[in-house]
Structure formats: structure tokens, C-alpha cells
Amino acid sequence: MARDWATVFDLDTDAADLLEHFEREWFEGRQYRHLPDARHGVERGTAIVGDAVVRGYPSMPRALVLATAVPERFDGPVAVEEKLNGYNVRVARIDGDLLAFTRSGYVCPYTTAKVESLLDPAGFFDAHPGKMLCGELVGPENPYTEHDYAEVAEAGFYVFDVRDRETGDPVPVERRRDLCADYDLATVRQFGTYTPAAAVGVAREAIRDLDATGREGVVLKSVDGRRALKYTTSAIHRADLEHAFALPFDYGRDFLFTRVLREAFQAVEFGDSTAEVHERARRLGEAILVPAVETVRAVEAGEPVGDDHTVRGDPAVIESLLSHFRDQGLEVHVERDERVDGERVVAFTKVARATRDKTEYYLEGGTVDE
Ligand code: ATP
Ligand code: MG
Question: How far is the C-alpha of 307 from the C-alpha of 98, rounded, in Å?
Fold first, then answer.
């Protein structure tokens, strides 16, 4: 009993024009579809499981200058919250099963199992079956990101949005906070709600504190949850560059220009002195060159280079995660594979082939035309 997808997605074109872009995947013997890129006004990461729709999490703009971007984007009260650095997860309950979707709409077996062990959302979904929990999965042990938070030992899940699964409509910020409190779900830190003009100062202060502890940044939201704006710390710009330049031929170029500009505008808005600008420049330079040098040395020594991750869980879940990566054509280099208290713990590198191959080529005398 196929649904009228043109109506479901409010399309002004044939449903077939949208549906052809969905890719088919399997999760535990069940087929589903997901949309890897935004199409016809439908968000990237939207999934269709049977007849159920799980809308993608919308992308949000970034401010380079808080003082002007905040009043430009908001005309009413603004909630200021912490932006956590992990990966975006949507949790929904479909036909009685809890499913965790990554940003691209893939039902991740590892994340689904992790979410099941980290939270107890049964009460929430009994009362709100048509909603989804949108949150950041953070912590050192996961297959996608690595960023340490002092308060997170292995993995943590923090809700930053509750949305209607089918329409993607958010519940207002305050209602979301109440729902999280009622159902005992961890939520991102709140810095309060202010007029746009006052929110600028609060966001800047928050950024100074977050920067000092190496945390990522803030998200400002209209109280109805419909508009958002992100802004990040110098610490995360450097961390991004360190990561990118550890794998220069895979990520370097894409990261560099944007991070340099974020730093330039931040230095001006935060009124850096000449000495502070120089300090910022020194740290930025180190974030680029030091990891690149380390990588050339690692390749020279024949060590694998790539993104390092550690995962821990049910052996069958870990196996399906690793085979999913291999199916995607990723080269996975396992450094450690052991059983701890009945769980399988695997430390692995997603090999960065471009960086490895090009670095080898230059080390062996390859030349560049530039
Ligand atoms: P995009 O630009 O498409 O939003 P991106 O992958 O570049 O995505 P980020 O720069 O990390 O993402 O910023 C948006 C993401 O920040 C969200 O998708 C979400 O995963 C994450 N996030 C962390 N904390 C919050 C928060 N408090 N509110 C909303 N999103 C948050
Ligand atoms: Mg992020």
C-alpha cells in the first residue's frame, strides 16, 4: 500500500522524480530507502522505512560575525545553546523498533545499539510515536568522529531537537526541554533565552568559555525551533585543521580557506590585540603544519594513515558495522581486536588512500607541476 508520496513530501513534481534518488539499504532483514543528497526541497538523509518517513535534519547557516548575523536572522527571542561536536543522530520508533539514523539517512547498526544502551526512550515514544529525537552522539568511542568531552567516558547522546518524523516540524525549544526533563533524556547545555541584541553578548561570552575548554561552539535558535544559526570557537577551527592536515590529500584543501576566514572574522569581532592576532596565527599555523609533517613521517615509516576509531559492543553489531564499511569500499586497517567483558572492542583506521598514495609518490621522487 504505497502512499501518495507527492503529498507526503509536498512536491511540485512527480513523486518518481524524487524517489529515483533514494538508495536502497538493508537493516536486519528489512529494506529501507534513504536520500543521500537534498532533492526537490526534501532534506538530505530523509529515509523511508516501509510506509514510514523519517525526515532529514536540516542544514543550518553559520555566522561569521555574531553582532550583525544574529539580529539579521532573528526578529524575536533567541535561545542560546551549546553546539556539541559529535555526529548527528535521529532516533525514531517504527513498527515497535528503535532505529538510529545517521545524517545521510543510513540506519547505523552500531549507533542503534549504542542509543539503546544509552537511553530509555520507551516512555517518550509511547506518548509521542510520531516524533523523533534529534541529538549529537559524542565521545571517544564511535565509528565516525573523535572528540573528547571530560564528562563522557565512552559515548553520550544529547538531544538538541524533537521533531515530527514525517514533516520535520520542530517542537518549540522550551517544550523540547520539558520533554527531555519529563522522559529523563540528556540534552545540550542551555545558556538562556534573550533578545537578539542581548543574545550576541551571551553567545560571545559562551564562546570564550567553550574555547578555553576546547569545546565546539554555540547554536542560536528562534524559540519556535524553526530558525537556527551556528558559530564556533577558535579551538574547534584548529582541531578541524589538525584533523584535515593529518590527511592533507583527503581533506586539506576543503578545510583550509573556510577556517582561516572564520578565524579572521573572529579576531576582528573579539577585538584581538596585535599580540593576540600573532598568537592566533601561530597556533593556526601549527595546527596545519605539525600534523602534515607527522603524516609524511608516518607514511615514510610504512604506518597506516587515516581516521582512527575505537568501537565497542555486541560482536555481531561490530561485525555488521565493519562489513558495512568494507561494502562501501573503505579500506579498514584493524589495530586491535579483543573481547572485554563479552563485548568486542576494535580499534581501526579508515585508511586515507589519497594521502597514503600521494605521499608515497612524492617521497619516491614524484614531482608536481606548480
Ligand atoms: P550542516 O551545515 O548541514 O548543518 P554540518 O555537518 O556541516 O551540517 P555542523 O557544522 O556540525 O554540521 O553543524 C550542524 C550540526 O551541529 C547539526 O547537524 C547537529 O548534528 C550538530 N549540533 C550540535 N549541537 C547542536 C545543537 N545544540 N543544536 C543543533 N544542532 C547541533
Ligand atoms: Mg558537527
Answer: 29
Contacts of 104-108 with CB under 8 Å at 24 or more apart are 104/34, 104/36, 104/44, 104/45, 105/34, 105/35, 105/36, 105/44, 105/45, 105/46, 105/47, 105/54, 105/56, 106/25, 106/34, 107/25, 107/27, 107/32, 107/47, 107/49, 108/143, 108/321
Instruction: Cell 524559540: give the residue.
Output: 223
Sheet containing 47-49: give its strands across. 23-27, 30-34, 47-49, 52-54
Question: What parts of the chain have a pLDDT lower than 70?
Answer: 1
Contacts 24+ apart (CB under 8 A), 31-36: 32/107, 34/101, 34/104, 34/105, 34/106, 35/105, 36/104, 36/105
Q: Return the best residue to mutate from 64, 160, 227, 231 for the ligand 1 pocket (most ligand atoms within 8 A of CB).
A: 160
Neighbour-count burial of 348, counting CB atoms closer than 10 A to its CB (0-12 exposed, 13-18 middle, 19+ buried):
buried
Q: What is the pLDDT of residues 188-216, one digit of tens each?
A: 999 999 999 999 999 999 999 999 999 99
Measured distance between the N- and C-terminal CA atoms of the chain, rounded to whole angstroms: 60
**C-alpha–C-alpha distance, residues 53 and 27, integer Å:** 16
**Per-residue cell: 34:** 534513504
CA 166 to chain centre: 21
Name every residue whose Cβ is closer than 8 Å to that of residue 298 and which is 6 or more positions away in sequence: 304, 305
Cα distance between residue 134 and residue 161, in whole Å: 5
Write out the E strands in 233-331.
306-313
Give the pLDDT confidence score for residue 29 in this predicted structure.
Answer: 87
Angle between helices 109-118 and 315-327 (to 10 degrees): 150
Residue 40 gets the label, from left (phi > 0), alpha (psi -120 to 50) or beta, of: left
Residue nearest to atom 25 of ligand 1 (CA): 83
DSSP label of 103: T
Nearest ligand 1 atom, CA 83: 24
Give the Å distance between the CA of 17 and the centre of ligand 2.
30
